[in-house]
Amino acid sequence: MGSIQDKFIRTRLFAINLATSNVSRVTDIVPFQNAIEFGRLESIQCEQGLFAASDAVAKDKEENKDKIEFADGAITEAIEEYVALSHHAQAEIVPIRQKDIIALGPQEVRRRKNFVAANFSMSPSRLSELGRTKSLSYLTDTVNACTESDYVSEKTVAPLKTKVAAAEVAINALKDEELDDAPLFTALYQAREKATRTYQAFRSVVQGVLQFSNSPHTIDQFILNEVKKIAPEKSEEVELALTQDAAANVATTPVPAPSL
Description:
Elements: H1 4-19, H2 30-92, H3 98-104, H4 106-120, H5 124-130, H6 132-148, H7 154-212, H8 219-230, H9 235-243
């Protein structure tokens, strides 16, 4: 679970941790072996920490899916009720017949047109594009305007008022859940940053040790060789993750066949 970015980071950590599980395969120089073992322990902790953090976020998103669908359904129903009220407003508030226009007078006709334009000019598609919070705000303003106006009866606006109130409850519940999620995302960002930093540091250590030990392999060749021997089913996944790393040289350097 988790993002593609987190998957690549975890795969790189897994690969370098696996490749260095036997330090004698990296170097026979004891002080360097100690450095590798220390770095590997740090790297393993980061791999586990990132997995736990990304898994927690993924599970939380799955748990919130029902609340998201409920909130979206509630705002959709409110928009549909708004459309129905909009048709009523166009037909009942603004006169069409010439005799009704004359009877009301130009000032009142203008006032009615302005009321309809101010509160019912938004198309349903445009409302949906605004998103939940802004759509709810617009619909709430429309309900309030209608409630305070003499042009729309309480009975007429009641269905929209009910749907808007339901949408507000659903959206606020979702917002509360998102606030509760904030610590999970903070933990994920921190785990991701630490894992990336630790991997880069450990990679540099292993690369330096290989060079000091006169290894014929680059760091990526060494990692891939070890993975192919220990966990061959993971080799393609590891190679892809390494090629996505800006520091990798795997894409430009031929990889020798692993020695048995």
